[in-house]
Amino acid sequence: MVKIFVTGDNHFGKRYDRYPDVKEQLINSRFESFQEMVHKAEEEVCELFVITGDLFDSINTIKVSDVKRVIEILSRFSGTVLVLPGNHDYYTGNEKVWKDFEKELSMCEHNIILLNEMRKYSFDMKKEKIVVYPACCQSKHSVENNLNWIKEETIDSDGRINIGIAHGAIKGVTPDFKKEYFLMDEKELLNIPVDVWLIGHTHIPYPEILKEDVDTFGYKIFNSGTHEQTDLHNRTDGNGFIITLDKQGDAVQIAARKYVSGKIRFYDLNIKVKPDSDTSLKEALKKSLADIDRKAVLRINITGMIKQAEYHEKERIYKELLEDFLTYEIVDSELSEEITADKIRDEFAETSFAAKFMEQLAENPTELQMVYELLKQYKES
What we know:
Blueprint: E1 2-7, H1 23-43, E2 48-51, H2 64-74, E3 80-83, H3 96-106, E4 112-114, E5 121-125, E6 128-135, H4 148-151, E7 161-167, H5 186-190, E8 196-200, E9 216-217, E10 221-223, E11 239-248, E12 251-260, E13 265-273, H6 280-289, E14 296-306, H7 308-312, H8 314-322, E15 327-337, H9 341-347, H10 353-359, H11 365-380
């Protein structure tokens, strides 16, 4: 039996320039979550800690101090660490990040193996013989995956556990409309007679049904997703997988569960409001934020219409309700104040055609808003 902790798409070196006020906190949180995964792997007595690609965010812009910090964390794992180059940190032998990585490894005792060759890697662990078949990336994009060399191998199941590790999109799971991210098909993967596939590239976990407190059986292909949510477009808690492979004759029983590792979450919220009360905006915001931990990055898109008094107070309301969150961004260009008869009369002569015309649209607020905006622009031009 062998126990594996699986992670990937860690993207160390991600800059977070969009959030200058909390940039360092976001960067450090990725390291802290990563360190806690190594601690969890130790707790679980895992023999392997596998990184399925994109450990680093790029090949040439990663600080040496960040490379060193990653190695220091991984070196605390008492088992064997396997690192696969992904499409963001691909390997040809000329990339600065891997030169720095290998230089730092040469200066310390470590347990880290860089899977940078298309060949099988063999390990003896306890009573098990483990053979790993890596499909690493040698470029950022490719219309073909790197599975062919494994397909051509004779994979012996007698007395060994065979593990495939690859980085790339999975058809039907990962959007890859241009077919440029080493696209793989589940059937293609399953036809290769390894016992389990550990995949990287997709930032959300697959299968999604894995639970924290109970093992799930019946799956052979696993993509753990990123260990901490990377941005607003990435909908995940941040996960690692704990996978147990139990050799029983020629068959291997696979048990898997997830470990929620992420600390900081990103939320992209859409709120639509109506002028139903004097506090429509405030109540809508409170409702949307009720279940969100304060250690979060928010972008809130607000549309609709609210009463005039609340509209003039909106900035104060935002600050009151959002200042305790890590950071936030409000997009409210499509939020407007309610157009009332009093407002029309304040801005347009009561007997004017414009005022009378708008009053006729009182029952059609959307049309009234459009007409009001047009007439106001005309009046101010």
